Amino acid sequence: MGTNFTYQNNFKDFWQYDPTTDTWLEKADFPGSGSYLASAFSLNEKGYAGLGASYGTPNPNNQFWQYDPTADKWTRQADFPGGARVSATAFAIGSKGYMGFGYNDTISLKDFWAYDPGSNTWTRKADFTGTHRYDLVGFSIGNAGYIGTGNADSTVGLHDFWQFNP
User: Fold this and answer.
1) Tens digit of each residue's pLDDT (9 = 90 or more) over 38-93
2) How far is the C-alpha of 134 from the C-alpha of 123, rounded, in Å?
């Protein structure tokens, strides 16, 4: 768990929780420029995080980072090609991570992308056919991903849920 902000302060700290001892251990700080409203997933025993913004900076970013817990090290990966945004969603299925939706400087989005860590490349998938959105929920179970709820530009509180089958 890590990163966030309070008014006038950005936080880049990152923490590991040990449920056996009920303690928190501080890890390497997140080096990216966005620290809140970012998106993340885990894949192949590594963490991936990106997008988001910093408090006091109205513009989101499209940076993408890998965290290696064994080395306690962050490494910059290929930038997210869908453009800078906040409040996107992400999940992993099989050997790929998936990220999309969110809000850029002016509108909510519904594009969707696959990330291949083996080649450090992004591939655009078919755009979502439902309502564009941000602040949505995303997760995977088995070989399927699920997204739902969230907000759209003029609609608050979307209540639908969708399945993604790669």
Assistant:
1) 899 999 999 999 998 876 666 788 999 999 999 999 999 999 999 999 999 999 99
2) 21
Contact between 99 and 124 (Cβ < 8 Å): no
State how beta strands 9-18 and 89-93 pair. unpaired
Phi, psi of 57 (to 5 degrees): -115, 110
Q: How far is CA 69 from CA 27, 72, 125, in A?
A: 9, 5, 29
* pTM beyond 0.85, yes or no: yes
**Mean predicted confidence (pLDDT) in 95-111:** 93
Distance, CA of 59 to CA of 111 (rounded, Å): 19
> Which domains are seen in the chain, by residue range?
2-164 (2.120.10.80)
Confidence (pLDDT) at 10: 61
Tell me how far apart the alpha carbons of residues 25 and 14 are, in angstroms, rounded to a whole number: 9
Residue 132's nearest CA partner among 106, 90, 103 is 103
Helix boundaries (H) for the chain:
none
